[in-house]
Amino acid sequence: MFLLTSREAEKILRGLRRVSLDLGLTTSTITVEKGCVVFPDGKSVPMDEVRMVLKKPNQVFLVSEDGLKPVYVAGRHFYKLVPTDGAPTVEVDGVRMHRTKDTTPDRDAVEKVKLLGVRGGTVLDVGTGLGYTAIQEVRMGANHVLTVEVSPEVLQIARVNPWSKPLFTSGRIHLVLSDAMALVECLPDGVFDYVLHDPPRFSTAGELYSLSFYRALYRVLKPGGRLFHYVGKPGYKFRRLDLKRGVGERLLKAGFRRLRYHERVMGFTCVKPSRSS
Questions:
Q1: Which CB contacts under 8 angstroms, 24+ apart, belong to 34-37?
Q2: d(Cα 196, Cα 146) in Å, to the nearest integer?
């Protein structure tokens, strides 16, 4: 499976023959024959189609037998894979799932997992998305990651995304397609060393910012366990809404302590007190 973006299309049109066909992870060799670009698997695409890609800088194209096909899933919402300077993101109805201003989705995942402080143990990863935090948790030493995603469309996009491959191949990641609240309610007490909670925007998943959900996360954490909760700043720029104040108050009410807000990643870290504290 090969993918093409406007950046790599521009290189081909400039005459380069070593380009990335997996969104920047590696490089491959293409050839040009009789006005067509020939990809390493033998698929051939007219040069005019490659020129068309230049006009779509926010789209990823799959190289298929029938030419270049944009990577998207249309249904109740519109999901589209979007290239960045690093790992790609997904847009849902035009809203990006990852931070891309002054960072890339892969670097953002590294920052979040570093703040969580994963050192072995088990992790509950709420909000799989393209799997970047779950993958990073394993890379930082987690023994087992349980990650939950509510959207089959997002996972469909993830299966096309080369950066998401470890999500489906790592023996230490267990992926569940489910509503997060329903899943957490079924989990036993005190089984996780860490929770990374990276929910969608408050406007679309307000229940994942509720006191009842925070209490459920508190319950499944071991004493001394750590939580990272991405909050973001929805509504702050124009309406000066301060979501983090209410989130902080509810986290404390749920029982979490040592609460700290990290401006750089727009999220909280906190701990479930140990039995001795």
A1: 37/12
A2: 10
pTM of the model as a whole: 0.93
- State the 10-residue block means of pLDDT for the chain, 277 residues long: 97 96 97 94 95 96 95 93 97 91 95 96 97 98 97 96 98 97 96 95 83 98 97 58 88 97 95 79
**DSSP secondary-structure letter at 172?**
T
> Coil, strand or helix: which one is 155?
helix
- In the chain, list all ranges with CATH 3.40.50.150: 105-271
CB environment 92-130: b (16+ within 10 A), e (fewer): beeebbbbbeebbbbbbbbbbbebbebeebbbbbbbbbb
CA–CA dist 15, 4 (Å, integer): 16
Q: Class assignment of domain 105-271?
A: alpha beta
Between CA 107 and CA 100 the distance in angstroms is 10
Find where tokens 């039995």 sit: 275
Residue that the structure tokens 């299309």 belong to: 9
* Pairing state between β 67-70 and 18-19: unpaired
